[in-house]
């Protein structure tokens, strides 16, 4: 994979978006400001997961001012995992950063991850303090400890969606989940592939707009059932964690078809 002509590393920033029209514009503007401050050639990609609000219109308007802003649009909702897979596949940079479009994380803290990337395959954020209602914080903590023990994960916070990854990671692992379980699948396969993980503390803020698409009893129960299935496939059946052999579908199922590095201007 080739970087820019000057040999500098490039980065793709992407956000999965669903009912995030109230925050997505600020996330985009701040992302380009961060890339400029870092002196990094990059792009911003929005994965519009069939959002019924004004997300598409807002991104379309901003794209007139930011040539390196792109939008991937799903005609039907594919779920959080499906949105992440599309984002990873659409990314053209040497590095891929993602966080949610609801602004519960401060995209300016990407700088902290970027500074720690040397010698790492993935720089994983972990929440300094979870800014959610008490019941979500309690259930989230229990969920984290359960998942960490079940999958033997060497990370403090499996569900902190504030991550920076080398694009080559997807030469080693293949993602298949369409639900929020994709975060567990990602970190479990990263650990099984013995990829290098660096952890960085980041802030987590109250949701200012919209509401969680994940946190309800029925969906959590479904994720737990699917989680046991994922554990069975990885640790009992020992299914391959990587992409198909050359000549098959390659990385397409892991994250869609990725573009070339270099990020045209």
From TrEMBL:
<dbReference type="InterPro" id="IPR050256">
    <property type="entry name" value="Glycosyltransferase_2"/>
</dbReference>
<keyword id="KW-1003">Cell membrane</keyword>
<dbReference type="GO" id="GO:0005886">
    <property type="term" value="C:plasma membrane"/>
</dbReference>
<dbReference type="InterPro" id="IPR029044">
    <property type="entry name" value="Nucleotide-diphossugar_trans"/>
</dbReference>
<keyword id="KW-0812">Transmembrane</keyword>
<feature type="region of interest" description="Disordered">
    <location>
        <begin position="246"/>
        <end position="265"/>
    </location>
</feature>
<feature type="domain" description="Glycosyltransferase 2-like">
    <location>
        <begin position="12"/>
        <end position="173"/>
    </location>
</feature>
<keyword id="KW-0328">Glycosyltransferase</keyword>
<feature type="compositionally biased region" description="Low complexity">
    <location>
        <begin position="255"/>
        <end position="265"/>
    </location>
</feature>
<keyword id="KW-1133">Transmembrane helix</keyword>
<dbReference type="GO" id="GO:0099621">
    <property type="term" value="F:undecaprenyl-phosphate 4-deoxy-4-formamido-L-arabinose transferase activity"/>
</dbReference>
<keyword id="KW-0472">Membrane</keyword>
<keyword id="KW-0808">Transferase</keyword>
<dbReference type="GO" id="GO:0009103">
    <property type="term" value="P:lipopolysaccharide biosynthetic process"/>
</dbReference>
<dbReference type="InterPro" id="IPR001173">
    <property type="entry name" value="Glyco_trans_2-like"/>
</dbReference>
<protein>
    <submittedName>
        <fullName>Glycosyltransferase family 2 protein</fullName>
    </submittedName>
</protein>
<keyword id="KW-0448">Lipopolysaccharide biosynthesis</keyword>
<dbReference type="Pfam" id="PF00535">
    <property type="entry name" value="Glycos_transf_2"/>
</dbReference>
């Amino acid at each position: 994979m080739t970087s820019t002509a000057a040999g500098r590393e490039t980065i793709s920033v992407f956000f999965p978006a669903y009912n995030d029209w109230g925050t997505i514009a600020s996330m985009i503007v701040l992302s380009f400001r961060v890339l400029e401050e870092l002196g990094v050639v990059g792009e911003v990609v929005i994965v519009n997961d069939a959002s019924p609000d004004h997300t598409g219109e807002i991104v379309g308007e901003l794209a007139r001012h930011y040539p390196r802003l792109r939008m991937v649009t799903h005609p039907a909702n594919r779920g959080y995992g499906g949105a992440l897979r599309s984002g990873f596949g659409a990314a053209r940079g040497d590095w891929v950063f993602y966080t949610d479009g609801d602004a519960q994380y401060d995209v300016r803290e990407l700088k902290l991850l970027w500074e720690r990337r040397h010698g790492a395959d993935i720089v994983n954020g972990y929440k300094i303090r979870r800014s959610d209602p008490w019941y979500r914080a309690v259930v989230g903590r229990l969920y984290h400890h359960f998942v960490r023990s079940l999958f033997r994960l060497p990370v403090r916070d499996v569900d902190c969606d504030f991550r920076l990854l080398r694009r080559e990671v997807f030469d080693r692992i293949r993602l298949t989940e369409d639900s929020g379980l994709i975060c567990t699948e990602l970190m479990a396969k990263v650990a099984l592939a013995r990829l290098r993980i660096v952890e960085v503390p980041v802030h987590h803020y109250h949701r200012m707009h919209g509401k969680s698409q994940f946190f309800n009893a029925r969906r959590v129960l479904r994720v737990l059932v699917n989680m046991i299935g994922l554990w069975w496939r990885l640790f009992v059946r020992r299914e391959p964690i990587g992409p198909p052999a050359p000549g098959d579908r390659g990385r397409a199922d892991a994250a869609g078809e990725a573009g070339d590095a270099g990020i045209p201007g």
